[in-house]
Amino acid sequence: MTESVTASALVDIAGSLARSVGQMIHEKRAAGVDVAATKSSLTDVVTEADREAERLLTEGLRSLRPEDAILGEEGASVAGTSGVTWVLDPIDGTVNYLYNLPAYAVSVAATVTDGAPGTMSDGRRAIAGAVYVPTTGELFTAWHGGGAYLDGARLSGPAETELLSTLLATGFGYTVERRTEQVEVLRQVLPRVRDIRRMGSAAVDLCMLAAGRLDAYYERGLQPWDYAAAALIARESGAVVRGLGENAPGEELLIAGTPAITAELAGIIAEAYRTLQ
Ligand code: IPD
Ligand code: CA
Fold first, then answer.
1. Which residues contact 264 (CB under 8 A, 6 or more apart)?
2. Of 56, 195, 203, 272, whose CA is between 20 and 30 Å from 171?
3. Shortest-distance atom of ligand 1 to CA 201
4. Which ligand is nearest to the CA of 94?
5. What is the pLDDT of residues 119-136, one digit of tens each?
6. Of 154, 181, 215, which marks where a domain is finished?
7. Are residues 76 and 173 in the same domain?
8. Which residues line ligand 1 (CB under 6 A)?
9. Chosen domain end from 122, 154, 186
10. Exposed/middle/buried for 222, CB within 10 Å: 0-12, 13-18, 19+?
11. Residues 94 and 196 in one domain
């Protein structure tokens, strides 16, 4: 089987699991949510719904794709023999979920580690992915070389614009050190753009960009599950997804948008980090 045949089959699995688990967490939300535990800091929370969603995604994948590996934000870790690893974020935007704010999503990506173009800084390259946003019922999907889609309609990414007219999304990490640095970078960026959005889900941000509802996005400190599916969706919509300088996008930095805007932002952000050192 060629990679594109495999990837288009995997995207169906990703989409149907993300949707069914997303509908489950959405229903569960109506009954109320409590923090089950905190992780990297007091602000980094996990709910029972995150755990239940990851368990259902893992069970679904184990029965449909028993030879694949699985890596999940809440600890899922399954070894495989096929060369495909599923990277799962059961709820991206957990703080929004806790507060009943709409920007949260289930993210499911099938990745490989062949070093081909599109490989992220964690060494993985998504070949198929889905992000389901339960509050709007929107399903974003993409597979490598096959384009990005919202409920089956092809997406064409952000339009060309000036930096000063750029609606720019970003996000912040959970530790005091990371946030202190991030606010300094934001001080350099904010006066140069139309406005900033901090919606609270990296996966949603990147899908909004793919749908042309944002012009650009950047963040430092993302983990593979935050971006695995959504960075593929952004890239397949036609957006550039890049890192700092020549580095692969990922934890150090992920910038997405048009070629011109991502280049300008990369310069400003690199300079801001240089002055922080
Ligand atoms: C977080 C969200 C947020 C981003 C953080 C992520 P979580 O994921 O994507 O927008 O700014 O960096 O950790 O904790 O809600 O799964
Ligand atoms: Ca996340």
1. 163
2. 56
3. 10
4. 1
5. 999 999 999 999 999 999
6. 154
7. no
8. 73, 89, 92-94, 171-173, 200-202, 219, 221-222, 226
9. 154
10. buried
11. no
Q: Which domain holds residue 224?
A: 163-276
Residue nearest to atom 15 of ligand 1 (CA): 93
Atom of ligand 1 nearest to the CA of 44: 14
User: Looking at 43-47, 71-75, 103-107, 266-270, which range is the least confident one?
Assistant: 43-47
Find the CATH number of the domain harbouring 138: 3.30.540.10
Coarse DSSP helix, strand, coil percentages of the chain, rounded to the nearest 5 percent: 40, 25, 35
pTM score over 0.70 = yes
Which ligand sits closest to the CA of 88? Answer: 2
Of the candidate ranges 1-5, 114-118, 197-201, 235-239, the one whose mean pLDDT is the lowest: 1-5
Of the residues 106, 197, 226, 227, which should be mutated to test ligand 1's pocket, given the most ligand atoms within 8 Å of the CB? 226
Q: How far is the CA of 136 from the centre of ligand 2 (A)?
A: 18
The residue written with tokens 């609270």 in the block is 200
**CATH classification of the domain holding 230:** 3.40.190.80
pLDDT of residue 2: 60
Pairing state between β 138-143 and 147-150:
antiparallel
Tell me, in angstroms, the distance from the centre of ligand 1 to residue 171's CA: 7
Nearest to 92 by CA among 77, 81, 102: 102
Task: Please tell me the residue having the least CA distance from ligand 1 atom 16.
Answer: 92
Range 19-32 average pLDDT: 94
Query: What is the mean predicted confidence (pLDDT) over 45-62?
Result: 93
